[in-house]
Amino acid sequence: MTDLNIGGIVKRTKIYGPGWRSAVWLQGCTLACKGCWNKKLWPTKGGTFYTHEELLSELLSATDCEGVTFLGGEPLQQAEALLPLLKDLRAIGKSIFIYSGYNRDELDETQLACVEQADIVVLGRYIQELRNTNLRWRGSENQVVEFLTDRYSTEDMNGEASEYEVHIHPDGTTTVLGYPPTDPQSLYS
Ligand code: SF4
Questions:
Q1: Is-above-0.85 flag for pTM?
Q2: 115: alpha, beta or left? (left if phi > 0; alpha if psi -120 to 50)
Q3: What does the alpha-carbon distance between residue 151 and residue 90 come to, in Å, rounded to a whole number?
Q4: Which helix (H) or strand (E) holds 26?
Q5: pLDDT category, 101, cuts 50, 70, 90?
Q6: Is there an atom of ligand 1 within 6 Å of 32 CB?
Q7: CA distance to 76, 143, 148, per residue, from 177 (Å)
Q8: Which CATH architecture does the domain made up of 4-178 adopt?
Q9: Which parts of 93-169 fold into alpha helices (H)?
Q10: How confident is the model at residue 189 (pLDDT cuts 50, 70, 90)?
Q11: Which of 33, 111, 187 to mutate to test the pocket of ligand 1 (most atoms within 8 A of CB)?
């Protein structure tokens, strides 16, 4: 199986979908949306390669998380490697949330198969002119939250709201997830 190029993993978060979830940022994106806040995830160089087994083990160690959210970068530009991981996570009972900058009609067969494994997807480019900081789980108004299974529904969104998290690490450093109301801080600063 092909290894996955990973830009970052947060094992427990509550802002990228329903309930406690692990979040995985895949490294590499060629879509180049104007105003993208994750430009450090554009290059395919710079990530860490995980085997299927390594990443699965890492995610399953977050035993209190009900699901995994995949962001980018562009997760579906690693669709061949991602698909078996999604299938294994789903078989184990984890819910799947995928963010992709692609529109559905741009997806090839393997990318569509990834989407079919998901309970929730947000598809479409980030469009800076349509940025809305009051949306839950997405950044611009063209992006729509799609519920693909009956595991979740709009009730799990609990309305629209902007959220961010500050993770304080044992060494005193912090990581900000999401977009706070003041100047943005990048994910891994
Ligand atoms: S798809 Fe996501 S990571 Fe890629 S350029 Fe657009 S906003 Fe940035």
A1: yes
A2: alpha
A3: 12
A4: strand 21-26
A5: very high
A6: yes
A7: 22, 19, 25
A8: Alpha-Beta Barrel (3.20)
A9: 109-116
A10: very low
A11: 33
> What is the β-pairing status of strands 120-123 and 144-147?
antiparallel
Q: Is 31 in the pocket of ligand 1 (CB under 6 A)?
A: yes
Q: Which of helix, strand or coil describes residue 166? A: strand
Q: What is the pLDDT of residue 160?
A: 79
38 lines ligand 1 (CB under 6 A): yes
Ligand 1 centroid distance, CA of 151 (Å): 27
What residue ranges do the domains of the chain occupy?
4-178
Q: If you measure from the C-alpha of residue 21 to the centroid of ligand 1, how many angstroms do you get, rounded to a whole number?
A: 21
* pLDDT exceeds cutoff 80 at 188: no
List pLDDT tens digits, range 17-61.
999 999 999 999 999 999 998 999 999 998 999 999 999 999 999
Q: 170 alpha carbon to ligand 1 midpoint, in Å?
A: 31
Residues 6+ apart with CB under 8 A from 14: 20, 21, 163, 165
| Ligand 1 pocket check for 187: Cβ under 6 Å | no
Decide if pLDDT at 187 tops 50. no
